[in-house]
TrEMBL record, chain A:
This is Multifunctional methyltransferase subunit TRM112-like protein. GO terms for biological process: rRNA (guanine-N7)-methylation; tRNA methylation. It is found in: Cytoplasm, Perinuclear region; Nucleus, Nucleoplasm. It comes from Nothobranchius furzeri. It comes from the Eukaryota. CDD domains: Trm112-like (cd21089). One of its GO terms (cellular component) is nucleoplasm. Belongs to the TRM112 family. The keyword Cell cycle does not apply. The gene is TRMT112.
UniProtKB/TrEMBL annotation, chain B:
It catalyses: guanosine(10) in tRNA + S-adenosyl-L-methionine = N(2)-methylguanosine(10) in tRNA + S-adenosyl-L-homocysteine + H(+). Its EC number is 2.1.1.214. Catalytic subunit of the TRMT11-TRM112 methyltransferase complex, that specifically mediates the S-adenosyl-L-methionine-dependent N(2)-methylation of guanosine nucleotide at position 10 (m2G10) in tRNAs. This is one of the major tRNA (guanine-N(2))-methyltransferases. It is an enzyme of class 2 (transferase). Signal peptide: none annotated. The gene is TRMT11. This is tRNA (guanine(10)-N(2))-methyltransferase TRMT11. The lineage of its organism: Eukaryota, Metazoa, Chordata, Craniata, Vertebrata. Belongs to the class I-like SAM-binding methyltransferase superfamily. TRM11 methyltransferase family. It is found in: Cytoplasm. Part of the heterodimeric TRMT11-TRM112 methyltransferase complex; this complex forms an active tRNA methyltransferase, where TRMT112 acts as an activator of the catalytic subunit TRMT11. Residues 170-300 form the Ribosomal RNA large subunit methyltransferase K/L-like methyltransferase domain.
Length: 123, 451
């Protein structure tokens, strides 16, 4: 699971109102080499909840001095965009789980794939 | 005045492939005005339905009319391509007729009135021209002379090679309902997927649609309720293979075509219970939901009381029970989801299974925030078809997500279960009952014939 995806996921456990962001509990993390594409990064930044991204990267030990606030004029700042690219697309949680911050319910991640299915009595 | 007119007065001819006939105009030849060569090239860079595009120099119902038309074509427009230093070749293409080689040569020779001053080069000409002849669309009634003829300068070919190169037959990882390459690319084009888009498929299966989107530079993600398909496990869909191999999964499919870097994520998830925060995240949503025929329609949830251990926990090996996911709910949920999570201007493209005897346009699902762009039928059998529906998000939904009445475009019908599509929940029964009726009819006929 990449942090780009994590940034967009929320808990859908019945009755939960503050299900975002999901807490990441990782037992295995990988960093891949993904081609840097500044245009794509620029398009994604406005869609992100910035603090959730920084928090998640930090938790995984891959914050790499990502600032706590979005820098202005980031479109031309290649250094900054490369850091964002690394956090969004290169860091990958392979094993672990995502935890709902309100209910504590855990969604397992195995082989990089989160399983978000709820059990029949949770829906 | 004259020079600007000469730029805008160019005509183009598209030669369309003779398949997916429901998706296009009846003739394989389509003349277009008001385009630039750049427009034509960008269309050909994406189209899998168009074989070739030409700058149209002349046309007519007979060769005599063609000749008149060509002699009327401005010599200034011809001159860059026919001057002394140029090299060229002329091809002959006949639709619905096979020509002997000798006849092709005769037809080329008959064009000797054209002012070509350059040299013929068969192997590497600078300019390629084509004489196209249309012998109609009835293979059992081929006329002696063509119904229509065209002559033009070849500009570009379409992307039909993708249908072969991305064929599901040679793909690493497939399932029972993997979408064929041609249709996957058509869907990608309907969704106007472009470079650096983020595309989502909520019924991703083996990722065929994501493969096509990634080819045009989009980043892709998907979900599916089936754990085995997402993880690439379980029984193989190939005839002589029992189990799936270790490298069969969606990521591997992208890797096969060199687009692995476009892979964002796939997840096991129930499309009726979305897991995304409330924001316009996706540039396009492209999907082929289950019809309940070859893949079951399901969602998590159960009508029964489930026995749990006293501490309220499940055994580790518990697999969530699923119940039938009504077809009309699938589409209502899909439209609702798209209205929430598409960017404005983003598109939803999906297949809608239809029981043809009861079909009417009103039963296409609608939503106040989504505008219907197109509705193309692909016939599956005499009584069933599927329709490729394309919708575009035109506005954000109002704050209250729970209110179907205000979000659903059906005036005075707040309950989506009153939607005409509700009847299609019985699609599965109708599909199979239609098959049974047909086979029993054939049995009766055989008896009558006394065989």
């Amino acid at each position: 699971m990449k942090l780009l995806t994590h940034n967009m996921l929320t808990s859908h456990v019945k009755g939960v109102t503050k299900g975002y962001p999901l807490l990441i509990k990782a037992t295995e993390v990988k960093v891949n080499d993904v081609d840097f594409n500044p245009q794509f990064v620029c398009r994604m930044i406005p869609k992100l909840e910035w603090s959730a991204l920084v928090e998640a990267a930090d938790l995984l030990g891959h914050r790499q001095d990502l600032p706590s606030e979005l820098v202005p004029d980031y479109e031309k700042n290649e250094d900054f965009l490369k850091k964002v690219h690394r956090a969004l697309l290169e860091v990958e949680v392979i094993e672990g789980c995502l935890q709902c911050p309100e209910s504590g319910r855990e969604f397992p991640i195995s082989r990089g794939i989160p399983n978000m299915l709820l059990n029949e009595d949770e829906v | 005045m004259a020079s600007s007119c000469s730029r805008t007065c160019l005509q183009y001819l598209l030669h369309l492939a003779h398949d997916n006939l429901d998706f296009r105009l009846p003739s394989p030849f389509w003349c277009l005005n008001s385009l630039t060569e750049e427009d034509v090239r960008s269309v050909m860079a994406r189209s899998v339905c168009a074989k070739s595009a030409f700058e149209l120099w002349g046309r007519g119902r007979t060769h005599s009319e063609l000749r008149t038309s060509l002699l009327n074509y401005s010599p200034e427009k011809m001159s860059p391509y026919v001057h002394k230093e140029s090299t060229y070749r002329i091809n002959v293409y006949t639709f619905n007729k096979t020509l002997l080689f000798a006849d092709r040569i005769k037809k080329i020779d008959a064009l000797e009135y054209l002012p070509f001053e350059g040299t013929v080069s068969l192997k590497s000409p600078q300019h390629i021209f084509c004489l196209l002849e249309d012998y109609g669309t009835d293979p059992n009634n081929i006329p002696e002379h063509p119904n229509y003829v065209y002559f033009g300068r070849w500009i570009a070919d379409g992307q039909r090679e993708l249908i072969r190169s991305h064929s599901v037959k040679s793909r690493h990882f497939i399932g029972n309902t993997s979408m064929d390459a041609g249709l996957s690319f058509i869907m990608t084009n309907h969704a106007k997927v472009k470079e650096n888009d983020l595309v989502f498929d909520p019924f991703v299966g083996t990722g065929s649609l994501l493969v096509a989107c990634s080819h045009f530079g989009a980043y892709v993600c998907g979900t599916d309720i089936d754990y085995n398909t997402i993880h690439g496990k379980g029984r193989s869909s190939r005839k002589n293979q029992k189990w799936r191999g270790p490298d069969e999964n969606i990521r591997a499919n992208l890797r096969q075509y060199g687009t692995q870097k476009m892979y964002v994520d796939v997840m096991v998830s129930d499309a009726s219970k979305p897991v995304w925060r409330n924001a316009a995240l996706f540039d396009a949503i492209i999907t082929d939901p289950p019809y309940g025929i070859r893949e079951s329609t399901r969602k998590t949830g159960s009508h029964k009381d489930i026995a749990k251990a006293p501490d309220g926990s499940y055994a580790d090996s518990h697999v969530p029970v699923s119940q039938a996911y009504n077809l009309s709910d699938i589409f209502a949920d899909l439209l609702h989801f798209s209205a929430q999570h598409l960017v404005v201007g983003g598109r939803l493209v999906y297949w809608l299974p239809v029981y043809r005897p009861e079909y009417c346009e009103e039963m296409i699902p609608h939503h106040a925030c989504l505008q219907l762009v197109s509705n193309c039928e692909q016939t599956l059998s005499s009584h069933t078809s599927r329709r490729l529906i394309t919708m575009e998000k035109i506005k954000e939904p109002k704050e209250n997500r729970a209110s179907y009445s205000e979000l659903d475009g059906l005036a005075g019908a707040p309950d989506p279960r009153c939607s005409p599509y509700h009847g299609h929940n019985a699609f599965r029964e109708k599909y199979f009952s239609g098959l049974n009726k047909r086979s029993s009819k054939e049995d009766t006929r055989a008896d009558v014939d006394g065989k």
